[in-house]
Design a protein that fits this description.
Blueprint (H helix, E strand, L loop, with lengths): L13 H7 L9 E7 L2 H10 L7 E7 L17 E7 L8 H20 L4 E3 L3 E4 L2 E12 L4 E10 L16 H5 L5 H20 L3 H10 L7 E6 L2 E10 L5 E5 L2 E5 L3 E4 L1
Length: about 260
Amino acid sequence: MEKKLIPENELFDIEKITKNLRSKIIGKKIHYFKKISSTNSYAKKLIKEFTDEGTIVVADVQTQGRGRKNRLWHSPFGGLWFSIILYPDLPPESGMLITMAVSISVAQAIKETTGMNAKIKWPNDLLIRNKKVSGILTELDASSYKINYAIIGIGINVNNKINDELKTIACSLKQENNKDISRIKIFISILENFDFYYDKLKNKDLDFIKKTWLSFTNILNKKIQVTENKKVIEGVFLGINDLGHLILDTKFGEIKIITGDIKYL
């Protein structure tokens, strides 16, 4: 049987990545695996070994990838699955701001590498034409006053096939762009963008983070529904506060939403 060649844009060349990466912190160390259970789980092991801030764990395939609330994240070959290790000098309530900075970075990278406009769906998804193309999982270890470490898991459907049962709610960059997308280019773009926004976050330039995040959403002044623990709240999205929480105008007045799943109405 003739061996099937893997397209060049599917190969993950760490040497090429490190040679072209222009960042101060993010991506200075990269651990690459062809297959792993979970990049976030491996990142936790590295933290116990006192690895550097900005260290990346990336894999071609995850066998036990997960999203928020331990939801399964299908992570086959062709996608981009990786985790970033951080030691932010921030209070624990700032965790959502880290997710926001990563969301912006992914949205900008998609725009830069494909020309497509991905929209951020609070708290941790990115959509193209209302279908999920990327998800972010932020895991924190914190004391009462400080985040000890943060692991940011990022999954992007790049060139991978989407399971039939997910095709109504998920998409890939290849599918939406009608051509293969370079995983290396988008990976480098995310790391460089996040290097910039993480620096803004550490310097407490929250207005810049908020304004940029809002520019990648499409729900300002629109009615949405938020569900958390079977509790459903409807209201008009007014914006976000300095901790990344949603501000909704509801029939009960203005309220703050810390976590939940949103639905566009």
